[in-house]
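pls design
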């Protein structure tokens, strides 16, 4: 995988996608499970892991802590943290990914102390960790943030009730990690219910943890003495699946996404059907097809699971540019997730952002290929979808974001008939440099 930012994606639009695409393992689940394996003093084999740059970064981080992690097959990682000694995770790799926040909970649970640089990740405004800290403190830890590093120590960890003030995937998983080996019962109230929260709990349970209620508002974790090794397979990626479903609809195509869990897709399939997109569900696949000349407008609000995922908001906004009439997108999870909108407007879209959380899309304008710049991972996916819909050639810059979360995107799109390639950048157009800085 080439993760350098010296490449651009070049897409000739106008092709209706058709055929079958196999969805990879869930990136947001795999990153958490990889870190969770720090709690296991034994070898874990993790299957169905996507080969994306966030995973590569985490492998390096775990190896730097004294664990051993490596890809032993195309999508299989072996990780053995029995010798892991260091509680200090600092440096550029830690700072650039959000999932490094899980190192706090996992190192605290395993070593009773952690020093972790404040996690980075995509920039949607402030990304606080107060709920993580509140959870660690409830378990008896002391937390101190100094020069951008979170230092956490505990003499011992004791189960407690943690009420989350906001529904947070990261804080729910982090507190779960800290509580697995603590003494007694921890209750997480107002927990996140995302499929990857459930997957992390299933992973830990399969290694000997006692976690109940994952997937509901209340998760109960009874601490155990230790965890044992084993083999676990990561769930399919809900967001990658949704991205391909939206791309199929946006190009007026006929695509079957396979290796998915259709119930995870319900909030999206409901919206696509509302727009007039054809949906056919199978046990582990969904066919998406368009047999109408024009799609209907619709309004969308992002919500924690089982609501419409914020991580499909940019892709959906790209699709809404093709619908008949005015659609409204309301972002309820992140305070500022419309930074990419000017890039879509560069391609001829007519989208107005009101305040920081509402985008109004005047549908029906034909998109035209242009040089554009990904501003984060899912924004990059939205630009790919817009490029597939557009007349002419689009060049997408800043591929480092897309490489964080989409495995073999170019190959998969080509398999559906798209005209897409990656080429060296020389140089990035002047007009995009400010966006890239
Ligand atoms: C996870 O981020 C995902 N990342 C994000 O996906 C996703 O957008 C997000 O969940 C929401 O679904 C990973 O799983 C690695 P949160 P996370 O904690 O855990 C507020 C992608 O594109 N909050 O659920 O960081 C926060 O500001 C990425 O794959 C607090 O106030 O998100 C936000 O408004 C981007 N205090 C809301 O909660 C806290 O301590 C939800 O955030 C924590 C969060």
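designed seq:
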């Amino acid at each position: 995988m080439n993760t350098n930012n010296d490449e651009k994606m070049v897409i000739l639009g106008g092709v209706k996608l058709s055929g079958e695409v196999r969805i990879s393992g869930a990136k947001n689940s795999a990153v958490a499970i990889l870190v969770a394996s720090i709690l296991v003093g034994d070898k874990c084999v993790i299957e169905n892991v996507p080969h994306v740059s966030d995973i590569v970064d985490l492998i390096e981080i775990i190896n730097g802590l004294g664990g051993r992690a490596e890809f032993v097959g195309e999508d299989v990682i072996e990780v053995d943290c029995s010798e892991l000694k260091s509680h200090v995770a600092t440096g550029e790799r830690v700072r650039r990914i959000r999932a490094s926040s899980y190192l706090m909970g996992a190192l605290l649970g395993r070593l009773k102390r952690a020093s972790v640089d404040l996690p980075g990740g995509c920039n949607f405004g402030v990304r606080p960790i107060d709920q993580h800290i509140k959870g660690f403190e409830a378990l008896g830890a002391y937390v101190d943030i100094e020069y951008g590093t979170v230092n956490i120590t505990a003499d011992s960890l004791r189960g407690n009730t943690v009420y989350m003030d906001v529904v947070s995937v990261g804080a729910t998983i982090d507190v779960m990690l800290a509580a697995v080996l603590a003494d007694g019962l921890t209750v997480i109230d107002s927990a996140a219910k995302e499929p990857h929260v459930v997957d992390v709990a299933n992973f830990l349970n399969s290694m000997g943890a006692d976690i109940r209620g994952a997937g509901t508002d209340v998760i109960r974790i009874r601490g155990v003495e230790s965890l044992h090794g084993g083999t676990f397979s990561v769930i399919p990626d809900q967001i990658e699946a949704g991205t391909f479903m939206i791309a199929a609809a946006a190009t007026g195509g006929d695509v079957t996404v396979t290796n998915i869990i259709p119930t995870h897709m319900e909030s999206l399939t409901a919206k696509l059907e509302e727009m007039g997109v054809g949906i056919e569900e199978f046990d582990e696949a969904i066919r998406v097809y368009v047999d109408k000349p024009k799609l209907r407008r619709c309004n969308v609000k992002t919500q924690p699971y089982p609501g419409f995922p914020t991580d499909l908001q940019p892709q959906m906004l790209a699709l809404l540019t093709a619908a008949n009439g005015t659609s409204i997108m309301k972002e309820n999870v992140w305070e500022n997730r419309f930074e990419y909108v000017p890039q879509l407007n560069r391609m001829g879209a007519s989208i107005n952002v009101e305040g920081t959380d509402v985008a109004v899309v005047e549908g029906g304008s034909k998109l035209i290929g242009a040089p554009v710049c990904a501003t984060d991972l899912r924004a990059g996916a939205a630009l790919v979808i817009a490029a597939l819909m557009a007349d002419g050639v689009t060049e997408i810059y800043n591929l480092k974001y897309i490489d964080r979360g989409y495995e073999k995107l170019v190959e998969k799109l080509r398999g559906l008939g798209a005209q897409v390639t990656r080429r060296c950048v020389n140089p990035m157009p002047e007009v995009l440099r400010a966006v890239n800085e």
